[in-house]
Amino acid sequence: MTNVSMTVNGKAVSGEIEGRTLLVTFLREGLGLTGTHVGCDTSQCGACVVHVNGEAVKACTMFAADAEGAEVTTLEGMANPDGSLGTIQAAFQEHHGLQCGFCTPGMVMSAASLLKENPKPSEAEIRDYLEGNLCRCTGYHNIVKAIMAASGQDVSSMAAE
């Protein structure tokens, strides 16, 4: 067992973990932050995307011990300080960018990384960026629409699917 300390969603946290504990496990089971989902355990689906020191990371591929001293942001950290939905989360809700919701945390976190790098991405750029995130329900159209809306772009001309 080893101790790990990091900042998660702006709060200092620590815990005792086995060396093999994945970051996603520490977040979900150790801290009760269940917004980060475990989908495939093989880094294929992207449901577990979080930000570590500002970079999008699939939390099922990283040991919690490797996040020692890091700044970690999860889906819960994307909300506004008053607890209301953040801009990207609200856009997903408004533009129906979710159905079952299982992939949504990873999609929102990936979208935040994309918009940080490219504040006004095209539809093609969004689709390319989301290549590592799988959704079995939506067909991606409304996810792309939600991300474009979150970036402040007009989505009224996007055809409905």
UniProtKB/TrEMBL annotation:
Keywords: 2Fe-2S, Iron, Iron-sulfur, Metal-binding, Oxidoreductase. Residues 2-78 form the 2Fe-2S ferredoxin-type domain. SUPFAM superfamilies: 2Fe-2S ferredoxin-like (SSF54292), CO dehydrogenase ISP C-domain like (SSF47741). PROSITE patterns: 2FE2S_FER_2 (PS51085). It holds the Pfam family Fer2. InterPro entries: 2Fe-2S-bd, 2Fe-2S-bd_dom_sf, 2Fe-2S_ferredoxin-like_sf, 2Fe-2S_ferredoxin-type, Beta-grasp_dom_sf, Diverse_Oxidoreductases. One of its GO terms (molecular function) is 2 iron, 2 sulfur cluster binding. This is Carbon monoxide dehydrogenase. It comes from Actibacterium pelagium. The lineage of its organism: Bacteria, Pseudomonadati, Pseudomonadota, Alphaproteobacteria, Rhodobacterales.
